[in-house]
Specification:
The chain starts with 9 loop residues before the first helix and ends with a helix. With about 450 residues, it is of the alpha+beta class.
Length: about 450
């Protein structure tokens, strides 16, 4: 009888391969090593990106494909390599023009800001030559990306005299890590981060002094407010990125990634705009909104299972921003009132064009912010009335945090169930109406919720 040591049954070989791949968490057939390098020469800085595949494949595809801008912003170093946009799969594809299998490809990148709809900008330049980039923009797979493929080995190399800020730590020369999920923001440049008790910050020195002061001194107060009102962060200190390209543009964008808040201004008129107090309040509101996301259970996307439930995490973050600014800054109260009134008016108008349930399909994602804030304001008011001020919206969200930690789904079903003990059926009915597919019922529900919050 043959020994298994010398002759293995085909089924056992297959089983071993399956177990090995499952244990690694990555399909070996799609594993790609990524190297991104910044070099500095007399003619300027160059960013080069290389992918090495574990075995030759017909094509390389990307996890995130918000548009086709890689086809113009990534310059292949080989004349035989191209990036094409597949309109059927709506993916950008790296392939050989002559049909050869590819095993390594390299590109020269365009390290400037590019607005990507519903995604993070690839680069966020700082005025002093530094740059933050979104690692998730680099995630790629050989042939196809499977759902279980969620590990991305990345190596970053920087020139002498510059450093990397990765997860709040300053690193010289190079850094290697395995990324996952949506990736992260990584800084490359000469600027040293500001380290406080509550955050690690990289704030562009060219930003107006009033904006710098608000970010450097007010953000720790906002973080402390949320830590007290909800639950202190169990992770390492969050990172704050505020970059300013100072170019002739008119756009800005920001967001959150796990343990990170970032904002980029792609314009050259901030000094003039900062003279308006509303601009400073708007900037602070944005960062308060994004900071609130850090305290929601799970990651931002995990607060709701589906896009149509986005009123839960976007609406709560906006109302939490309102509460934080009202509590911390008396001179911001009138601005907050105007924001709430505008949210009600914007939501009411928006519901005539799309119900909240279908807003994400119809390009009205902003409704989740405006309508969601009105809904959370009503919940806060009703909970305080029912408990004679002993509890508030924060009490409900603390219970949601505990429910999610026990394994319950972090969506609207769990959240609404937590409202039942307050014996407020009129509140539940109004929320159900506001989120229904019937536009007239939705508007009536929203109007009821607005009155409840007064």
């Amino acid at each position: 009888m043959p020994s298994l040591r010398t002759i293995a049954h085909p089924f056992l070989i297959l089983l071993v391969l399956v177990i090995t791949n499952f244990t690694n968490g990555v399909s070996l057939a799609s594993q790609v090593d990524t190297v991104i390098e910044k070099t500095q020469t007399e003619s300027g800085a160059t960013w080069e990106l290389s992918y090495t595949l574990n075995k030759p494949s017909q094509q390389l595809v990307f996890v995130r494909n918000p548009d086709a801008s890689r086809t113009t912003r990534w310059l292949p170093k080989s004349s035989d390599i191209e990036i094409a946009y597949d309109t059927i799969s709506q993916q950008e594809i790296v392939r050989s023009k002559t049909g050869k299998p590819i095993s390594k490809v390299s590109f020269v990148l365009t390290p400037t800001y590019k607005h990507l709809g519903k995604d993070y900008a690839p680069f966020s330049p700082f005025s002093n030559g530094g740059n933050a980039f979104h690692s998730g923009r680099l995630f790629a797979c050989a042939n196809t990306c499977e759902d279980e493929h969620n590990e991305w080995p990345i190596t970053l190399k920087v020139p002498s005299g510059e450093h990397i800020v990765l997860n709040g730590k300053v690193v010289s020369g190079s850094a290697s890590w395995v990324d996952k999920n949506n990736g992260r923001q990584v800084y490359v440049g000469k600027q040293q981060p500001i380290i406080t008790d509550s955050a690690v910050a990289l704030i562009d020195p060219a930003l107006p002094e009033s904006i710098q002061a608000k970010l450097e001194y007010d953000m720790p107060n906002i973080m402390a407010y949320f830590s007290h009102s909800l639950k202190p962060l169990a992770t390492e200190k969050p990172m704050l990125f505020a970059s300013y390209a100072m170019v002739n543009g008119h756009s800005s964008q920001g967001g959150t990634l796990p343990n990170q808040i970032f904002m980029h201004w792609n314009r050259n008129d901030l000094d003039k705009r900062a003279e308006n107090s509303d601009f400073a309040n708007k900037t602070l509101w944005f960062f308060a909104h994004e900071a609130a996301h850090l305290y929601q259970p799970g990651n931002t996307a995990g607060v709701s299972e589906n896009d149509e439930q986005s009123w839960l995490h976007e609406g709560s973050a906006d109302y939490f921003a309102a509460l934080a600014m009202n509590y911390l800054y008396e001179d911001a109260n009138s601005y907050v009132k105007r924001r709430i009134t505008h949210a009600f008016e914007s939501c009411t108008l928006g519901l005539t064009q799309s119900t909240l349930a279908n807003a994400y399909k119809n390009g009205h994602f902003n409704l989740y912010y405006s309508c969601g804030m009105v809904m959370h304001r009503a919940i806060d008011s009703v909970v305080q009335q029912k408990t004679l001020g002993e509890e508030s919206l924060f009490s409900v969200w603390k219970r949601l945090q505990k429910a999610v930690s026990r394994g319950l789904p972090p969506g609207t079903a769990t959240f609404l169930a937590l409202l039942e003990p307050y014996n407020a059926p009129e509140l539940i009915d109004a929320i159900n109406n506001a989120t229904s597919d019937n536009d007239k019922k939705a508007i009536l529900g929203l109007q009821t919720l607005y009155r409840m919050g007064e």
